[in-house]
Amino acid sequence: MNLALHTFLFSVYPYLCLAVFLIGSLVRFDRDQYTWKSDSSQLLRASQLRWGSNLFHIGILFLLLGHSVGLLTPHFAYAPFISAQHKQMLAIVSGGVAGSICFVGLTLLLHRRITDPRIRATSRRSDMAVLIILWLQLCLGLASLPWSFADRGDAATMLTLADWAQHLLTMRPEPSALLAVPVVFKLHLVLGMTLFVLFPFTRLVHIWSGFASLAYMWRPYQLVRSRRLHGPRRAARARREI
Length: 242
Hints:
It is an enzyme of class 1 (oxidoreductase). The chain contains eleven helices and no strands. By secondary structure, the chain is an all-alpha fold.
C-alpha cells in the first residue's frame, strides 16, 4: 500500500468517518425524521426473517461490544487478570462463534432480499449496499482468524491494533504502527470505518433508536388518573346517560 494512502487511511480517514457519522446522523434526525426507521419487510414475507434477523442481531451486537472492549481497553487494565495471549485466544474463540452466527443470519437476510421479487422491488439501493458491505466485512473478519491464531504466541497483532485504536481515541494517531500488520486486517479496518460514513444515509440509523430505547429502563411510571366531573358537567353527563 502506498505510504501516503496508508497514512491517510489510518490517521485522517477515521476522524472524517466519525465526523460524517455524528453530524450526518444529527442532520438527518433534524430534517428527515420520517425516514428514521428500519424499513422492516416482515409484512411482505415473514418466513426466513425470524431466524435471519435474530441470528444477525445477536452476533453483531456481541461483535460490536467485543471489538469496542478489546480495542479500547488499555493493556494495563486487564494484565493483572489475564495475559495478552489468553485474551487473544478468548477473542478468537468468542469472535469466531459470534461471527459465524452473524454470518449465517446475514446470509439468510441477503438471500431473502435478493430472491424474493416483492422484497427486491421495494428495496432501495442503499438497503442492498449495506447488506453486501456488512457481508463482506464479516468475511474479512472471519478470514483474519487464521492470522490471529498463528499470532497467538505473543499477541503482537492484537496489541498493535489496540494501541493504534487507543492512540486515535486520544487524538494521537500513529498510522506507522500498522505498516507490518497483514493486509486482511487493514481491509477490515477500512471497510469498518466506511460503514460509519454510510450510516447516516441508510437504514442503519435505526440503531440510534435501539440504544435510545434503553432510557425506558429508568423512565418513571406514567400515572393515569380518572377525571372526576363536578357540578353542571356531572349533571349533564348523567342526563346523557339516562
